[in-house]
Amino acid sequence: MRALQLNAPQQPPELREVPVPEPGPGEVVIKIAGSGACHSDLHIMEWPAEMLPFELPFTLGHENSGWIHELGAGVSGFEKGEPVLVYGPWGCGRCKRCRMGMENYCEQGMGASGGGLGLDGGMAEYMLVPSARHLLPLGDLDPVDAAPLTDAGLTPYHAVKRSVGKLGAGSHVVVIGAGGLGQMGIQFLRALTPATVIAVEADEAKLPRALEVGAHHAILATDETVKEIFARTNDRGSDVVIDFVGMDSTMLLGSQIARPLGDLTVVGLAMGTLPFNFFAIGYEASLQTTYWGSATELMEVLDLARQGMVKSLIRRFPLDGAVEAYQLLREGKIEGRAVIVPHADAGL
Ligand code: NAD
Ligand code: ZN
Ligand code: ZN
To answer: How is residue 44 annotated by DSSP?
Structure first.
């Protein structure tokens, strides 16, 4: 089968011919419906060898949906052909956090990897999933449309949910970066909170989309952004700021606009730094990064999608268009999420 593999650091990925995986005991092979192209893949492609936490090569694609293709010995509860979502961070499955569904924060440190992140992912015709516990039945949702829920959905859902307590009536939240994740973040904020949502985007072309998915205000990132945010928050600053970029300038902006007792959550992996001192952020404001989300949160994301409360705007590409999809993402030309569809019968 064909698979889009990352073979060497700082080199573009390549389509290669590799064997179709076979499931061992307890494992499952899925036929890929959709595999989302995440901006994290661009970071991974750019990082030098010493920053890469993974061995190469591996097949890209950590945001996956598909149909059960083959069940390994001892796997029950799924039928061949059944549509499924793949929960992406694959922990040890035995530690306390894994048992609570938080495999992203596995105590054995395994949660940072998964299919498409160090292990073979979904930008291929088939993908090996090492345990049926990583699969969620999709039901009636279109499997290609649903693929981004597993990361572009789950990651902002987790970031929003942990701050919901600070987003009561009359509160404000700023979303920095309204791309694949940010657009979903705005929808979760609207679904879960009564807060006024302000999107800040560097690309003027993305502002209408931010409003369309539910932001009350969408403003261009400029030298005036801090002033504009204060003007829109009764001069208080924002109760919560979620930074879906993570570069020097966005983290600085976040630190300037998060109000005392607020949250500044950095989700973006642009690897910026934020100089810290006593006055760097509002008193008792919390600064944190988040990584992906839990399996139970993915179930909640799926429920919201089933209710039609959140939806990712997707653009479909065939497997041999994956390199182009990443190039367009790099240039900021993907409006929502690019999803690679390896089998034309899934609907291209
Ligand atoms: P994307 O390219 O779809 O969206 C990024 C958006 O940020 C774009 O719309 C871009 O125009 C905007 N932007 C860039 N610079 C900006 C600035 N200075 N001010 C305001 N907006 C700016 O990317 P994505 O797939 O949504 O990913 C967003 C980030 O989240 C990436 O860094 C990615 O690696 C990271 N990520 C983190 C996790 C996690 O678990 N922490 C999971 C997935 C992705
Ligand atoms: Zn990702
Ligand atoms: Zn674990």
So the answer is: H
Say if residues 144 and 33 touch (Cβ distance below 8 Å): yes
Cα-based angle 201, 202, 205 (whole degrees, multiple of 5): 80
Please give the structure tokens belonging to residue 226.
């801090």
| pLDDT at residue 345, as a whole number | 86
Taking the C-alpha atoms of residue 149 and residue 156, their distance in angstroms, rounded to an integer, is: 10
Of 84, 77, 166, 193, the C-alpha closest to 129 is 84
Q: Which residue has the higher pLDDT, 28 or 345?
A: 28
Reduced to 3 states (helix: H, G, I; strand: E, B; else coil), residue 243 is: strand
Determine the residue of 64, 217, 256, 269 to mutate for testing ligand 1's pocket, defined as the one with the most ligand atoms within 8 A of the Cβ atom: 269
Find, among 101, 97, 96, 69, the residue nearest to 82 by Cα: 69
Local confidence band at 312 (pLDDT 50, 70, 90 cut-offs): very high
**Does ligand 1 have an atom closer than 6 angstroms to the CB of 267?**
yes
Please say whether the beta carbons of 87 and 136 come within 8 A: yes
Pocket residue to mutate for ligand 1, from 63, 151, 181, 219, most atoms within 8 A of Cβ: 181
Residue 332 CB less than 6 A away from ligand 1: yes
Is-contact 285 212, C-beta < 8 A? no
8 A C-beta contact, residue 168 and residue 204? no
Q: Are 91 and 98 contacting, i.e. CB atoms less than 8 angstroms apart?
A: yes
- Residue type at 75 in one-letter notation: V
Nearest atom of ligand 1 to the alpha carbon of 206: 9
Do the Cβ atoms of 96 and 78 come closer than 8 Å?
A: no
Identify how many contiguous H helices and E strands the chain contains and give both numbers: 10, 18
Residue 296 C-alpha to ligand 3 middle, in angstroms?
Answer: 15
Q: How far is the CA of 41 from the centre of ligand 1 (A)?
A: 11
- Residue 317 CB less than 6 A away from ligand 1: no
Residues 68-89 have a mean pLDDT of: 97
pLDDT of residue 112: 78
